Description:
Elements: H1 24-44, H2 48-55, H3 57-61, H4 63-70, H5 78-94, H6 96-109, H7 114-118, H8 126-142, H9 145-170, H10 175-203
Amino acid sequence: MAEFHRPVRMPAEHFDFVKGGEDPAVIVRTAHETAQALVSRVRADPDPEVVGRLVAFAEREGIDAVAELWSRAAPHSLPGALWRLYLLREMVQRDADQVTLAFGRGAERLRSIDPVIAGAPSPAGPEELRALADEILRGVFEGDLALALDRAAAFCRVTADGALELADDADPTEPQRAEALTRRAARLARLADELSVSARLERDGALD
């Protein structure tokens, strides 16, 4: 993903990144250290209450707080992957109706196992997808990290495909909405690629 302006309670569709004046090397080193320490410590003793607080961290503190920690890290790194998972959850939480519509359309169209990998029930409403986003992020701390990344990537691919289909439908009468849906589809497709690479690195023991 490209860098954008710093988010402050940003709309989910923006997928924004943080920019700042701090030393980039220090920021990236801190991102890696905090991500490694957090994940390893929680996975060693995955207390459900602690995991629940971590899943809801961005909801309580704002997505900008997560961005401060991890958004400047490389996409194919542990902090970069965590940032993207929190972004995905934020999108679902804030725009569940539209995400549900796009995911449902994509699940109908795609001839792949991505809907199965994502793990959404069929049919899936907004509450089911909110719960799924929580479940995927929870898997980082108390499940298989690579599987969590694969599930998130699959979810993004399905939703991106559905968003493109919705954009085609809207184009004749709602060109601005069609343009917004097309941008969202592109961001989701890029997010899916980045998460898939991170999943492969995790399975090779190279995601740090």
